[in-house]
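seq:
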Amino acid sequence: MSNVVSDASPLIYLSKIGKVELMKELFKTISIPEKVAEEVTERVPNKRFRAATAWQRIRLRECIRQGWLNVVPTSQIHPGAFQGIPDSLDAGEKEAIALARSLRAMLMIVDENRTINFLENNDFPPLSSDINRYGVRILNTLGVIHLARKLGVVPSMRDIVKELIVVNRMGFKQAVVLQYLRMHGEWDDNNDSWQDFLALSVEEETRRNQAHRFI
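struct:
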């Protein structure tokens, strides 16, 4: 099984801008629990604006069929891995955390602040006497794009980040976005402005509207 686990939102966000395959290129295989698979492939009520559209559900089903998006049944998650996870998290988030813990995953990809806060502020007890405490590294969708740029998987992160923010209405902190863009030499404080960066051109707006006709 993959040592990388993802929650639903990164898959939904990246598929909405046609970039979900970046996760395959970076990590080869990604494991998701049953509940997350339901959130991204089935027409079920989802939280806020993160519900997968029809096009996304089709695309993500294909990723599962291809095998690089690996669905792990709930029955295969160590029962003790759910210990201490708060009920305030939804079923997909809880299963994703439990799966990461059960697999002793190196990395969990997640955007929800409440899930990130839980992972950062809680030290899991060992599942059994022969399994030591460990911490899972956390990466959000913006971090995935940064990693792809750093490793040369994408030539630039600027346009991808813009799409993530504008198309998904994502609330990344401006300072964090600019820090990444400056790091890669994709932001000039003297000539670039945040307002211009987020503005859609006529061509971009037309392309976006055409894409939404199929949702």
